[in-house]
Specification:
There is one protein chain. The longest helix is centred in the first third of the chain and has 42 residues. It contains 15 helices and no strands. Helix 5 packs parallel to helix 6, helix 13 runs antiparallel to helix 14 and helix 13 crosses helix 15. The termini are far apart. It has about 325 residues and is mainly α. About 65% of the residues lie in helices and about 0% in strands.
Length: about 325
């Protein structure tokens, strides 16, 4: 019995040594490959540029993919001319899709259907360029190519999760598609958030007009209603929140604009808010509003002064080089 136990122990130790030696040999082989490549690279400084470039085919595949992950789509297409298998790896193109477009309906079934993520990236890129020219044509392109379901929920999630769209065209599209705008708005929650921070979150999702208009008024009104509904403990009414939002927007422009030399002070900001509320109390068919606490108004000013504009322009114009189609 003791001899059998001893044989098992010796056999187990022998297997462990074999496993360890196998792992060490793999690690040593990878290190040897890297060392050889580095020596060739350092030894060829006097030669041509081509001889000085590391050939990714000589590296382990997982290391080559890690290197190619740092390329954008255009450079990755160029790399596929040299390293076809590595540069066309589905993981690389799936990552590029998700980093530029956080959501599209095709993500639900694309991988299961065995379709190419490189092809999906090219379709998404083409559709985004079309959207930035004519929004309705862009959405139609996505729907016709089975990238987006023609449903307000999916379109809203797509717009909300990407930075590849021109904000001017997004605004034009949302004005026409109030059902999509409502879906974007429904995904906002302002519970337990300070008013300027909640306003930033709201405008980060839907963008704000650059001038005062009926569209801006409707945005502020919808935001004020939901903010009061999410924060009933504050005791604020929607019309009071509307006045505060307009005051914050004006303050943001005043503090951020380089053309305004004499910036609004905290005392002036508090006085303007209280004056606006008093004017509202004197208007006909209005019940008196509760005055805003001076400390609360001062905190509003401090937040904008320290954090910045409450309506930053998220949807920058996209100027990208065209992707090389393979």
């Amino acid at each position: 019995m003791g001899q059998q136990v001893g044989r098992r122990i010796l056999g187990h130790e022998r297997n462990n040594r074999c496993d360890n030696s196998f792992c060490n040999s793999n690690q040593n082989s990878k290190l040897n490959v890297l060392n050889r490549l580095l020596k060739n690279r350092h030894g060829s400084f006097g030669s041509s540029t081509l001889n000085n470039f590391v050939d990714l085919d000589l590296l382990p595949p997982e290391l080559g993919i890690q290197i190619l992950q740092n390329l954008n789509a255009t450079d990755l297409c160029l790399a596929s001319c040299v390293w076809t298998d590595l540069a066309n790896d589905e993981r690389l193109w799936e990552g590029l899709c998700l980093s530029s477009w956080g959501f599209c309906s095709a993500y639900r079934t694309w991988k299961q259907q065995g379709k190419s993520f490189k092809r999906l990236f090219l379709l998404l890129d083409e559709g985004s360029l079309t959207f930035n020219t004519e929004p309705e044509w862009g959405i139609r392109y996505f729907v016709d190519n089975h990238i987006l379901n023609d449903q307000p929920e999916d379109i809203a999630m797509f717009i909300h999760s990407t930075n590849q769209l021109c904000w001017k065209q997004v605004r034009i599209y949302l004005r026409k598609r109030q059902d999509v705008f409502s879906e974007i708005f429904k995904r906002q929650s302002f519970k337990n958030q300070f008013l300027p921070n909640a306003l930033r979150k709201f405008f980060n999702a839907v963008d704000s007009p650059t001038t005062q208009s009926e569209y801006l008024s409707s945005l502020i009104e919808k935001f004020s209603i939901q903010f009061c509904g999410d924060n009933p403990d504050l005791g604020l009414e929607p019309d009071v929140v509307c006045i505060l939002c307009y005051s914050l927007l004006l303050l943001s422009v005043d503090l951020a604009s380089p053309h305004v030399k004499n910036k609004m002070s905290k005392r002036e900001f508090i006085r303007n808010i209280r004056r606006a509320l008093e004017m509202g109390n004197n208007a006909a068919a209005r019940r008196p509003r509760e005055p805003v606490d001076r400390d609360f108004a001062g905190h509003l000013y401090d937040n904008v002064y320290l954090v910045g504009h409450v309506a930053p322009q998220r949807w920058d114009d996209v100027s990208r080089r065209p992707v090389t189609h393979q």
